[in-house]
Design brief:
Keywords: Membrane, Transmembrane, Transmembrane helix. With 238 residues, this protein is mostly helical. It contains 11 helices and no strands.
Amino acid sequence: MFWVARYEWFQLIKSFKTIGVIVSLLLMSYGLSSLQNLASEAMMTEDLALTDVNETVMIVFLFGTFGIGFLYVFSLSHDIINRDISLQSIRFTLTKISRLSLLSGKFLGVFMFWFVCITLCLLLLTIFSGTNVLSGIIPLAIFFLYTVAATLLLSLCIPKPGMSMFVGLLLGIGAPIFAIVAQFRDDPILTIIHQYVLPYYPLLEGVTMQSPELYFIPLVWAVVFFALAFLLLNRKDV
């Protein structure tokens, strides 16, 4: 399992698309830290107000990462399983490890890549802003657990890498737009999907309303997505 995770890690690291993704996240962190310093200097007020500025910057960073997170993960890893199936390289891999180990290794490798990325971004934001925003690592880690599990399921539901790329882009763009529309529309179905299926509402509410129990919702969906992906992989004749 771990050599599969290491392989997926290096596959992501050496991609030119990945470099662009990392640079954009780091630039967003640096830009937010600069804005935070300017806001803090302009306010020249008590610590409570400065704390509010720091929390606002962290929430803005969460909004930005959540908004582009699906798109980034889907665009880089949409073919994480169907690529191997189409090339038939998965047959060789499955002679050495089980299907569960293969799926777990791919999940772990992709998740650890994103976990390192967001940790570096939060460290950069902390260093340049002078405040500790590392508490944001928990909702971000849960978000990427959810997203990576959804990517595994997508790659198994759609056999052709080209088609999974197209669908992944649609989902990556459509998911945050759907969440915004559901937030302002008084529609019970949209509200249920927004609050209990997509990860945005429970994670942001967990941060802003100090309700960490809501983190349980996207974690459950991550487990469900992974379990469905495992069932699909078991049913496939590879």
